[in-house]
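Q: Start with the shorter request: fold the first protein.
A: Done. Sequence, then structure:
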Amino acid sequence: MFEWGQSPVGCVAMTRYFKKTRSVRLAVVDRGIGIPAQLRRSRVGDLHREDNAQVIREAVMRPRLTSRLNRVGGLGLKTIRETVCERGGNLTIISLGAKVCWRGERLQTAPSPPFRGTAIEIDFRPELELPDTSPNLF
């Protein structure tokens, strides 16, 4: 996010560990141009008429969608959502008047006060045991 936030004032990142629940919260906020504006300007033709919440959902769900100019693919937000949801965590993104939250696999959207930039908050339990999905070769 620091690399492509295009924020004249930079970014702020905060992390916190909650001992009681053994969970981590990570928040990153920039005052850049926001996810919807970035994607709409990046020649993603089918998103130009969508509302801000739908553009955020697409930025996080659609494979290889990126707002970074002259770059192929983008795995950042999609990979974060998959990792957080796999661990039963929450991902919240606020950008340009839209708020989109994944609570596990459940998706919620809500209007937000106008916010120039992007705010991302991640809550998850890094030590959660995950099922072994590798094939048993022996």
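Q: Next, the second protein, separately.
A: Sequence, then structure:
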Amino acid sequence: MASSSENNTLANLRQQFDSLPARSKYMLMFLLVLIAVTWMGGLWWWTSSTLSAQAGQLTSQQNNLLMYQNKQLEYIQATQLITQAEERLAQLGRQNPSSYIEQRVTQHDVRDALRGIERMGTEKQGNIQETRYRVSLERAPLAPTTEFLFDIENSGFLGTESVTIRTNFVQGERLLSVTLDLIAYDLVRED
């Protein structure tokens, strides 16, 4: 039934098309081609813009993934550095910073210039304990003082927070007055 109805409709359309004048046939064909081209252009534009948007999202997600991978790598490297630093601190053992500083002052011949080692306070940063010290040297000779400072800085468990140096000339010799703020690092031991 449906087939004969379709055939009737197609035959009817063909008969009407054939009855049109040539100019009207061309205009109808032009109109149908214009509709088809417009529809295809719209479909192409919609597909292109959808694909471009998805490509932009994909690029953004790839950049995010790359950023997260880089952050993960940085985290792994930072964790390794922390582990190495903790192992190094554990190898140094529990050294008394005050006695260590006094030993270095004596070793570098600036014991007479030492005016004091003052403990300023302690705080915890995770499993690292930071103890602050202030070391004061007055009228210390230049060369031994710089060797002392170099030795302290390379101790492995002491870090320099700040240094104040004043220079004095006494009888043509350069003497230093040094205020050294140090941080002593130690692992927090859980007993």
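Q: Describe the second briefly.
A: The helical segments are 2-19, 22-92, 97-107, 142-153. Strands lie at 114-125, 128-141, 158-170, 173-187.
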